[in-house]
Every structure is written in C-alpha cells, then in structure tokens.
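We emphasize that the prediction below concerns an isolated chain of 189 residues; any contacts that depend on oligomerization or on bound cofactors are therefore not represented. The input was used exactly as deposited, without trimming of termini.
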Amino acid sequence: ERIMKERKEYEERRKQIEVKEKELIAGKEVKEAEMGSNLRGDYYYPTARKRYLPRVKRAYDELVPIRAELAANSADWDKINVYAKGHGDVSSALKLYVSALGGGGLSISSTFMGDMKTHAEEFDNAYKEFVEGVKGKKVPKALSAAEGMESALLAWREAGKPVGLTNDDWGVGEIPDCKRGVPGAGTGK
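Result of the prediction step, given as a token string:
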C-alpha cells in the first residue's frame, strides 16, 4: 500500500513537471525560469551574471547616445572610434552568458536560449558592419549598423525575459558575495 501511494505521488509530480515544462516552452511571458541546482550551474550562472551582464548593459548604454549622434549627423568620430574598439568583446559576452545559462556545457537547452544565441549573432554581424562604417567614416553605414546593434541587444534582452533580463538593470541585480568567514555573505549553501 505504501508503494502504491509513493507511485501515485510520483506520477502526479511527473505530470505537474510535464505541464510546467510545456508552459515554459510554449510561452515567453514567464517571469522566472528555474535554474537546475547543481555544482556547475551554481558556479557558472552567478559568475556569468557578474562577468558578462555589466559589459552588455554598458555597451547598450553607450550605444544609445552614439546612435543619436549619428542620426543627428553630428558624429564625434574620436568618441565613436573608442566605442568601436572597446566593445568588440560584447558579442562574446552575449554568447558566453547564454552558454552559462545552459549549465556551462551540461547540454541544457531551451527555446529562449536559442533565441538569445540568434540575437547575439545578429549583434556580432551588425558590430562588424559598424566597425567598417566607422573606419570609412560613413555615417549611413555606421548608423544602420548601430541601429542593428541596438535592436539585436534589445531583442537579446527580451529573449532573456525568463531569467529576468528585462529589469531596468538588465538582470545584473544583486550578485551574491561568496566570501568565507564573513557573517551574512555567501549563497547560504
């Protein structure tokens, strides 16, 4: 009788998980996704938030005024050159963050992660066009590429909605401080 009860509970739990999985796959309006707790995931995900998201947010924050300058045809090419040279690593940060969401190589996948990878590629391609436009000081080409970069970053952020990237801080939030021997520090594990 106890075994029958355990089997029944197991089946009910399995059905609940299947329903939840279908909801996560089907809808992008999910506010939060559960990240599986494992040793690698507990390391890679918070580290990725700390390492990659601030770079992505800074790239977007600095891109908006540059795009506005290009659109107004009042480009400060020295400032734009600094941006073009300084944010080449953002495309890798976009891709590495998605990789960390997938458990750092654990073959975890989700539809939203595939969308995020696609938008990271779009950013990368637009960034290459931007660099070419800046080198030649071609306003239309640089502006078009900057708009492509901006839309790719916003689309990447929107695709990351299940993990909280649509907040004002782009998901950077409060990052756990894992210091030993300090009361109140760490992740509580």
